[in-house]
Amino acid sequence: MNQDRHFGKVAVLMGGRSAEREISLQSGTAVLDALRRRGVNAHSFDPSEQPMEVLLREGFNRAHIALHGRFGEDGTVQGALELMGLPYTGSGVLASALAMDKWRTKLLWQAAGINTPRHVLLTEQSDFEAVAEELGLPLIIKPSREGSTIGLSKITSVKDLPAAWLLAARHDTLVLAEQFIEGMELTAAILGDTALPLVRIQVKGGLYDYEAKYLSDRTQYFCPSGLSAAEEHAIQIQALQAHRILGCEGWGRVDVMLDESGEPYLLETNTSPGMTSHSLVPMAARAAGISFEELVLRILDLAHVG
């Protein structure tokens, strides 16, 4: 089948203005190359370098969003594409905005009975000692509306809390202090109505931060995860439920911690996950027998129509 006839002219949105620009360029290039190998009339488009209305002027029929973080994963680009009537990959405006905001994600999940680490919002006026006493140490301090663990710290002492807050506050006015869950780090990739095989992440040093995600060769990934079929299935069901509670669709990734007693805690949902050589969704897809090219085509086929 000539995919070009099916999808028309496709813009792969990459780059953008967020702190994750470089990763987005890598994801976008991988997506673009895969689409072209399958005969799709695909072109790169960086919304930080040209206005969005160019998409209409140049006759694009569909957008594959490979943007990460703000101005790409937070509902803003999705809203612009809906105004133009262009179908786009991933979740809609509201779901994208909610998933980007880890605090509001948690509020919805808690209301729906989804297990997520305890947390409080931090400000400069917060009683840091009281926060540490309430949540316990260690703590994770992070911006509510950033991705790729940018601005994230793990602290083991109250005296480190002000500096960790300041680092996170450079990236966002909303800063979360979150209970640290000791245990196994997992991620559940979502494709359509299916949760793909879980990926287990093992990090040297114990913190899956920006360096561990994108730069280190010491981070290990296991897919199959090593969990029993029953354990894996239960987490996949929860991940799908959490994804749907936010109104997410198309594809995405739900990050999970499994504590030492086997209790899963859902951390966040990513509506435009990475598609680089280190990325987790392609890894899970491979374990399900889906090649990278087929994965990209399936995501494009699930494009959101506003």
Describe this structure in words.
With 306 residues, the protein is of the alpha+beta class. The protein folds into three domains: 3-90, Rossmann fold; 98-114 and 182-297, D-amino Acid Aminotransferase, Chain A, domain 1, CATH 3.30.470; 119-179, ATP-grasp fold, A domain (Dna Ligase, domain 1). It contains twelve helices and 13 strands. It has helices at residues 3-7, 21-37, 54-57, 76-84, 93-100, 102-111, 128-135, 161-169, 210-214, 229-245, 280-287, 292-301; strands at residues 9-13, 41-45, 62-65, 119-122, 139-143, 153-155, 175-179, 183-191, 194-195, 199-202, 220-222, 251-259, 264-270. Strands 8, 9, 10, 11, 12 and 13 form a six-stranded antiparallel sheet that branches. Helix 2 links the parallel strand 1 and strand 2 (41-45). Helix 2 packs across helix 12 (292-301). The longest helix has 17 residues, at 21-37. The model has no long low-confidence stretch (mean pLDDT 93). The active site is at residues 20, 148, 279. This is D-alanine--D-alanine ligase.
